[in-house]
Design a protein that fits this description.
Blueprint (H helix, E strand, L loop, with lengths): L7 H12 L2 E2 H12 L3 H13 L3 E5 L4 E5 L6
Antiparallel strand pairs: 1-3, 2-3
């Protein structure tokens, strides 16, 4: 399998997603206080991470629930 290179910020998001699958809103609330990241910043990180095939989402009726595609070991 090809190694996926993540930035420090992407790694921080992955750490949260390894704990539990989350929506953009949940991720924003999670990182707003500690990192000051806005919703748009989170969306941009997730787009890049999807392009790298590190995360994907399940479309639910009103939200997208993001989950990791790679394990912590990878």
């Amino acid at each position: 399998m090809e190694t996926i290179k993540l930035t420090n910020s992407e790694w921080i998001i992955m750490t949260a997603l390894w704990e539990k699958n989350m929506t953009i809103t949940q991720l924003t609330h999670h990182f707003k206080e500690t990192h000051g990241w806005s919703k748009n910043v989170i969306i941009n990180f997730l787009k890049k991470m999807r392009a790298k095939k590190a995360v994907d989402f399940i479309q639910e009726p009103k939200v997208k629930v993001f989950y990791p595609l790679i394990s912590r070991k990878e």
